[in-house]
């Protein structure tokens, strides 16, 4: 499907979709708990469906009902087929850890984009804890041979490749024979995502000890307890609609937790620094069209904000510098290259460096954008099209189903002028 967006005048209220990251974590913790747990208000998307599918192959029973997914967890078993994780890096990396608890062999695969996502440091970390994991040169597919339990003990890994490596080990750590002492050899990036993992674990009765700078973690042997786990609204998905308000009118989003541990709650502060008219009350955030100014911002802890911040900076007065972009080359696409390509197509000058991205704000013009199958690129340029001269066409626009299946509907419901084609 292609979606063409024109300059629009937005106005209205929308509800933030449920958090993808917390839905993953709720499902995973529920699968590790004995008995029946409920994940309330889950996000149904390609990625979370991938996690549910993999967990079912590993022996959990996942019953999807409107507004609630029931999970019968407990003992995991060898799957009868390869564990295809679609395009979900979270699913792949977390499931790698769970597979170390299985008595038998598990092969984890995924779509072509997933084969480019590194897993080598996680393979090394799990093997230090007594696992038997083998990857293809540090990339999927991954073979895990388990004996029904994991020894545990001490392990080290870098903290600046993917926070998902740390989260994966923390998830299985309480079920190891000896517990786990995990040390990081480089500073942890995207630490809010590890905090989200620990928050979800607490909801299921598991306590993780972390040093103040989160370079060391200690986990004693414990058991996950069944729970009713409510998923909060997704600040990542909300960031696109909040940006749409700042560029094209007035938008209020409800269902967002104030003080959330989600990394992308930083969007509110970024908008304020850029001069946007933002008001926040309880679980509601309202943004009105504003004259934006350039910003200096570090996305090392909130890398998913990079595409939408770049879209905002493209219209802002002056120069913007976004730092902390190195790991963004290892996402669903090379997000740095994809954003640079899209902005150039819309007449915006950028300078791409190893860990900095410089944007010279201007008056973007419409163009044809290839998101390279990346949901966040598609959404960011869909939003930028609301303020561009002429028409902006997003190819492969249904790739947004990875995280926000209702994105185009939500944008249209707020008043966006858009046209869909090729969706049958």
TrEMBL record:
- Binding-site residues, 3-phosphoshikimate: 20-21, 25, 162-164, 190, 304, 331
Positions with biased composition (Basic and acidic residues): 1-12
Q: Which InterPro entries match?
A: Enolpyruvate_Tfrase_dom, Enolpyruvate_Tfrase_sf, EPSP_synthase, EPSP_synthase_CS, RNA3'P_cycl/enolpyr_Trfase_a/b
- Return any one Pfam family short name: EPSP_synthase
User: Might you give the EC number(s) for this enzyme?
Assistant: 2.5.1.19
Catalytic activity line of the entry:
3-phosphoshikimate + phosphoenolpyruvate = 5-O-(1-carboxyvinyl)-3-phosphoshikimate + phosphate
Task: Provide the Gene Ontology terms for cellular component.
Answer: cytoplasm
Secretion signal span: none
Query: For the region Disordered, what residue ranges are annotated?
Result: 1-21
Keyword Signal assigned: no
Q: State where the protein is found.
A: Cytoplasm
Domain Enolpyruvate transferase: where? 8-411
Instruction: Respond yes or no to whether keyword Transferase is given for this record.
Output: yes
Q: Which EC class, in a word?
A: transferase
Predominant location = cytoplasm
Domain of life where this protein originates: Archaea
The task this protein performs is described as: Catalyzes the transfer of the enolpyruvyl moiety of phosphoenolpyruvate (PEP) to the 5-hydroxyl of shikimate-3-phosphate (S3P) to produce enolpyruvyl shikimate-3-phosphate and inorganic phosphate.
Q: Could you tell me what this protein is called?
A: 3-phosphoshikimate 1-carboxyvinyltransferase
